[in-house]
Structure formats: structure tokens, C-alpha cells
């Protein structure tokens, strides 16, 4: 228990330090973390509202919720790979469980995610509606945290051995954006895209999120349980895989 508290403090301190340094001496500070998803939202909203008119109901909130959750997944996974390299000198000087690097980088992304999700919720309440169903967004919220950490552990393990894996992951993220139902409704998509979107755990998380937050609906229990359990299993597998290979960080960096 004593070691757990010590390591928890290490994760917290590294995450908070990284968060402060990220916006240190910046004129706009935290606003920079909002600028990218806002710009992405504005461009996509214009394209799919005026150029290629979408039939998705409540598209503004539908798109905004997708971008907020996608941005966290993007930041949490990519920053974890970068943290492996950035924190490698520290691993040579002092001993600590190497998985704390991934936990702390994910926590840094989680701070922004919590703020952005709160803003998203307020926007939906003010400009659309409020319902008790919206409190259930905690389920997709927890699911995407487990999924993001699990994927972060897996790709960070690959990065220990293959430096090019970070470039490959960037390509996967660019492709994954369009294979995830962020700008379109998975249930109305052509069958091949619909199947991919529904097999995509992030896509299933977004279906849950929008059901609770945007449409005041309740998805099937099967969807909720399978998505949550799968996200946890990805985390468990990624955690195990990274711990098995984490000692190689000192050797390969």
C-alpha cells in the first residue's frame, strides 16, 4: 500500500509537471489545447453542413462529442510513445516501474479531456437539453480511458523495438479517424463501413456517448457490457505486454 501511494504520487507529479510545461510561457495557455479540436470541428461542420449535407440529427453536438473523445484517444496514445523516448534518460538514473511513464502521459491527456468533456456537457445542456441519462456518459468516459491506456501500452511496447512505429501509428490514426463514426452515423453507413465502425471499439464508445448525451436514448445492455469489458481486456493485455518488455527501455534508448 505504501509503494502504491508513492507511485501514485510519482504519476501525479509527472503528469502535472508535463501539463504545466506544455503551456509554460504561452500567451494563450490552455486555449492552445482547445484550438486544434475547435478548428477541426469548424472545418468538418462547414464541410458536412454546407458542402456535403449530412442527414445526421443534431449534427453539431454529434460532431463535437466525437471530436472531443477522438482527441483524447489521439493525444493519450501518441503522447505515450513520445514519453518513452523523452523519459528514457530518467529510467537510467533512478528505478521506478516503467509503466508509470504511460500512466503519467495518459493522465496529462486526461486532464485536458476532463475539461473538454465538461465544456461539451455544458454546451449540450445550454443549447439543446438536459436529462438524467447524461450522467451515464461516465460509462463511455471510463471505457475510452481503459481503451486508450491499453492501446498506449501496446504501441509503446512496439516503439521500444521499432522507432518507425510512431510514424506508422500516425498513419493509423489518420485512417482510423475516417473508420470511426465521428462525422457520420455508423448505423446509416454503407454495410462495409458500418461493419468496420461497429467492430471498432472506439466507434461503439461513441455510439454509447451520443445515446446518453445527445439523443437522450439508452443503447442495448449488450453494447454497453461488451464495449466496457473489451476496453478493460485491452488495458489488461497492454499492461501485461508492456511490463514484460519494459526492461528493454534502458537497453534500447
Structure overview:
This protein is mainly α and 253 residues long. The chain has one domain. The protein is built from 11 helices and no strands. The protein has helices at 2-22, 31-51, 59-86, 88-93, 99-127, 138-161, 165-179, 191-199, 201-213, 221-245, 248-252. Helix 2 packs across helix 3 (59-86) and helix 3 packs antiparallel against helix 7 (165-179). The radius of gyration is 19 Å and the shape is globular.
What number is the mean pLDDT? 87
Which class of secondary structure composition applies to the elements?
Answer: mainly alpha
Biggest sheet record: none
What would the principal axes of the Cα set say about the shape? globular
C-alpha termini separation? 31 Å
Oligomer: single chain
* Helix-strand string: HHHHHHHHHHH
If you compute it from the alpha carbons, what radius of gyration comes out, rounded to the nearest whole angstrom? Answer: 19 Å
Helix amount, in percent? over 70%
Number of helices: 11
Ranges where pLDDT stays below 50 over 5 or more residues in a row are: none
Count all strands and give the number.
0
Count of the separate structural domains: 1
- Percentage of residues in DSSP E strands: under 5%
Amino acid at each position: 500500500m505504501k509503494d502504491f501511494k508513492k507511485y501514485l504520487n510519482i504519476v501525479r507529479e509527472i503528469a502535472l509537471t508535463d501539463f504545466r510545461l506544455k503551456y509554460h510561457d504561452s500567451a494563450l495557455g490552455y486555449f492552445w489545447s482547445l484550438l486544434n479540436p475547435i478548428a477541426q470541428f469548424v472545418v468538418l461542420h462547414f464541410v458536412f453542413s454546407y458542402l456535403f449535407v449530412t442527414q445526421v440529427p443534431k449534427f453539431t453536438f454529434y460532431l463535437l462529442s466525437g471530436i472531443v473523445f477522438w482527441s483524447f484517444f489521439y493525444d493519450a496514445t501518441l503522447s505515450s510513445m513520445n514519453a518513452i523516448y523523452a523519459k528514457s534518460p530518467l529510467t537510467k538514473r533512478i528505478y521506478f516501474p516503467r509503466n508509470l511513464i504511460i500512466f503519467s502521459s495518459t493522465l496529462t491527456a486526461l486532464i485536458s479531456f476532463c475539461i473538454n468533456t465538461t465544456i461539451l456537457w455544458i454546451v449540450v445542456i445550454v443549447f439543446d437539453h438536459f436529462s438524467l441519462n447524461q450522467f451515464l456518459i461516465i460509462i463511455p468516459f471510463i471505457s475510452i480511458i481503459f481503451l486508450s491506456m491499453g492501446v498506449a501500452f501496446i504501441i509503446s511496447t512496439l516503439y521500444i523495438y521499432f522507432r518507425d512505429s510512431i510514424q506508422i501509428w500516425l498513419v493509423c490514426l489518420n485512417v482510423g479517424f475516417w473508420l470511426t463514426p465521428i462525422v457520420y452515423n455508423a448505423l446509416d453507413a454503407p454495410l462495409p463501413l458500418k461493419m468496420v465502425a461497429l467492430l471498432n471499439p472506439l466507434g461503439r464508445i461513441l455510439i454509447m456517448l451520443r445515446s446518453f448525451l445527445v439523443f437522450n436514448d439508452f443503447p442495448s445492455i449488450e453494447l454497453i457490457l461488451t464495449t466496457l469489458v473489451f476496453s478493460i481486456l485491452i488495458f489488461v493485455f497492454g499492461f501485461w505486454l508492456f511490463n514484460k518488455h519494459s526492461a528493454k527501455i534502458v537497453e534500447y534508448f
